[in-house]
């Protein structure tokens, strides 16, 4: 899709996602990026997560997540996984310390990466919760779409993912209170906020 107008891509993604019922309502705030890793790096930068800060992630992940964390000089902290490939609760709790600034909740093959209760617990501890929904686009848990449980989620549109246009990524903002930070950083970064 390289070289295509982002407006054309936005219309294609919106049409596909609307037809597949990937969105629960029209109030989502989704932004296109060249890749999910660039969207993740943008999120970390926007919340001043950088040198020496720790970002917790699943040990069962792709290198794109690690590269995004390393690109802004943060430290990736891998945690164990359970037999169902979700993130192990005790491993996460043992990894938390004063340097922990974010947790990337990886939803794998239609499973929420950690429990809703744990997501809420960490949100109340001022740890940024980011849902990696690259392997679960369109999946639901108790009637709620995966990718909507954390304040921010990242989706990949790369060729091997659930919903693909060959390449690209989406940053999905589920907590409207974060929109001023995101929009300010889009402008500061010189990016044009094109929403789906």
Notes on the structure:
- This protein is of the alpha/beta class and 196 residues long.
- Helices cover 30% and strands 23% of the residues.
- It is built from 6 helices and 9 strands.
- A 7-stranded mixed sheet has the order 1-9-8-5-4-2-3, with helices on both faces.
- β6 and β7 form a beta hairpin.
- α2 runs parallel beside α3.
- The longest helix has 14 residues.
State the main characteristics.
196 residues; alpha/beta; 7-stranded mixed sheet; 9 strands
How far apart, in Å, are the first and last alpha carbons? 16 Å
Helix/strand order, N-terminal first: HEHEHEHEHEEEEEH
Structural class by secondary-structure content: alpha/beta
Number of strands: 9
Q: What is the average per-residue confidence, as pLDDT, rounded to a whole number?
A: 80
**Outline, from the CA principal axes?**
globular
Total DSSP helices: 6
In percent, how helical is the residue content? 25-40%
Kindly report the spatial arrangement of strands forming the biggest sheet: 1-9-8-5-4-2-3
> Gyration radius, to the nearest Å?
16 Å
Main sheet, how many strands, which sense, barrel?
7 strands, mixed
Please indicate the percent range of residues in DSSP E strands (runs of 2 or more). 15-25%
Low-confidence stretches: none
Summary of the model, kept short:
The protein has helices at residues 6-19, 36-46, 63-71, 89-95, 116-123, 179-188; strands at 29-33, 54-58, 75-79, 100-108, 128-135, 140-141, 144-145, 152-156, 169-173.
Write the layout of secondary structure elements.
Blueprint: H1 6-19, E1 29-33, H2 36-46, E2 54-58, H3 63-71, E3 75-79, H4 89-95, E4 100-108, H5 116-123, E5 128-135, E6 140-141, E7 144-145, E8 152-156, E9 169-173, H6 179-188
Parallel strand pairs: 2-3, 2-4, 4-5, 5-8
Antiparallel strand pairs: 1-9, 6-7, 8-9
Helix pairs in contact: 2-3
């Amino acid at each position: 899709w390289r070289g295509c107008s982002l407006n054309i891509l936005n219309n294609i993604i919106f049409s596909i996602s609307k037809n597949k019922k990937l969105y629960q309502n029209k109030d989502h705030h989704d932004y296109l990026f060249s890749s999910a890793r660039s969207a993740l790096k943008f999120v970390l930068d926007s919340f001043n997560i950088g040198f020496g800060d720790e970002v917790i992630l699943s040990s069962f992940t792709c290198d794109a997540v690690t590269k995004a964390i390393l690109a802004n000089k943060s430290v990736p902290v891998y945690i164990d996984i359970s037999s169902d490939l979700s993130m192990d609760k005790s491993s996460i709790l043992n990894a938390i310390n004063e340097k922990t600034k974010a947790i990337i909740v990886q939803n794998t093959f239609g499973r929420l990466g950690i429990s809703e209760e744990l997501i809420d617990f960490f949100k109340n501890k001022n740890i940024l919760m980011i849902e990696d929904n690259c392997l679960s686009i369109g999946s639901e848990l108790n009637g709620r779409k995966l990718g909507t449980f954390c304040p921010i989620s990242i989706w990949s549109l790369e060729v091997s993912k659930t919903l693909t246009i060959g390449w690209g990524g989406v940053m999905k903002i589920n907590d409207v209170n974060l929109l001023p930070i995101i929009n300010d950083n889009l402008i500061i970064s010189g990016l044009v906020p094109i929403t789906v």
